[in-house]
Amino acid sequence: FDVFSQINDQYNKRHQGVGIGLSNAARFVSLLNGQITVKSEVNQGSEFTVSIPAKPQSMPVSILNQKSNKLYNVLVVDDNPVALNIIVSLATQIGWTAQGTKSADEALKLIEEHAKNGHSFDIILTDWDLPDTDGLQMAEQLAQLDAELNSPLIILVSAHSRVELNKAIQKYEHSPIDGYLSKPVTPYSLLDAVEDALAFNRKELPPTLDQQLEGKPLKNLHILIVEDNAVNQEIAQSLLMSAGATCEIASGGMAAISLISKSSGRFNLILMDIQMPDLDGYETTLIIRKDPNYHSIPIIAMTANVLQRDKEQCMRAGMNAHIGKPYNIDTLINTIYSVLGLDESNTDQHNGTSSTNREANVPDAILNYCHEQKINIQPALELLNGSFELYFKSTRICDRQLTEVMASLIPEQTTIAELKATCHSLKTSTKSLGFVDVTAEIENIEADCQKDQLQDATAPALTNQLITVTQTAKKHCNIIISKV
Using CA atoms, how far apart are residues 410 and 223, in angstroms rounded to an integer? Predict the structure, then answer.
């Protein structure tokens, strides 16, 4: 469990790592007053055991702090008793009043009864696949009931994709639901779904699938996004889907290789991050290129490393192209077309329209705050295809990332290698949100970490600097979120 360093830390070496993984694990276990042990046998493997003193708690404090001040009255509808109990339990632990029922008919009766008694439900969380009347049909019936029901927020819960949902909604004149929640449900995803439905409450009918893909330059393309940063995942997936692509996400090199090996050739293209904690983008690409079944799949590097030597290293690893972060949708589309050898004239109708023809509906309070704090929100929105909803989601994800970073930064224990990795991940998130000053400070700390003569003895001072910068970034996120 001692920290070590490798003699050769080049990206293209076979075995990666900076030698801090097990040390970090032992440190965190120690902070929790626990123990970690290992049993290891050559050619067999290793077994790690962690023991920590713990007792059940209703919900982490960090989750409770995020809940709305309003105590919502929630009805959960799901014919699966396990799923029903889980969602009711999560809603209750968040602080809401929740009860469940197993069918649409029972749900409609409960909704009417509660409305008559003056205790209307604020939120309906309904499964899509119900035995009698499905969730969409129930939502449509609910919309036709008396106005005394006070129009509860209706969120569809399902393991089906949003594309399938949009297809199913086409038969309705108006969308009967306010939001979508993907299974399996977690406390964060439940809170997010409700916050999204409240912040962007809209029941306009989504266009048909053909209408959605009409003029979309990436329609019929299935793209794998390999990215460990949650903000970058959200941005890449949203931009690609807005251009008609179908996307899947792998949070690291090992996950990507696993997905590709089981993909049956469904991926037309891979977008590859470079710096990832398990296998980096170079090593992942080398492994893919050695597989005779998938060696020819196009791979585009997406990285904040934009020097010429970085681009050349991507090409040596077997990648087809390089895109610097942050990027806009037009650059992304043109690069994809170039790599796939497609007719780039088909992108003309998309180029230049993403941000100029689409005005982001940004609350004045947020615009004023960004102006006061010198946050470049307008350029950030242009990179996000003019979508304030995507900016809002990215801000919330970044806020969580900052919370995790602040918890992990311990001046007396954080190493230079850890600081460098943290800075690299953070700067792409804050840059995407237009936090110019914060990003510049993070880049300065990262540059200091890369100095050859720097020793871990200097890490505490740099760690304290990063903590201060992180606190500033988190304040920005919290204020922006609160003003929606």
Answer: 38
pLDDT at 213: 41
Closest by Cα among 322, 329, 156, 306 to 237 = 329
Q: Same structural domain for residues 127 and 257? A: no
Domain boundary among 151, 186, 209: 209
From first CA to last CA, the distance across the chain in angstroms is 46
DSSP SS3 for 395: helix
Question: Are the beta carbons of 351 and 337 closer than 8 angstroms?
Answer: no
Would you state the pLDDT for residue 367? 93
Plot region of 352 (φ>0 → left; ψ -120 to 50 → alpha; else → beta): left
Distance between alpha carbon 6 and the CA centroid of its chain, in Å? 32
Do 44 and 67 sit in the same domain of this protein? no
Query: The pTM is what?
Result: 0.61
pLDDT, residue 358, reads 46
Last residue of a domain, one of 209, 232, 259: 209
Residues 45 and 75 in one domain: no
CA–CA separation, 88 and 426 (whole Å): 35
Query: Are residues 165 and 185 both part of a single domain?
Result: yes
Q: What angle (nearest 5°) sits at the alpha carbon of residue 231, between those of residues 479 and 167?
A: 105
Q: Domain limits at 23?
A: 1-56
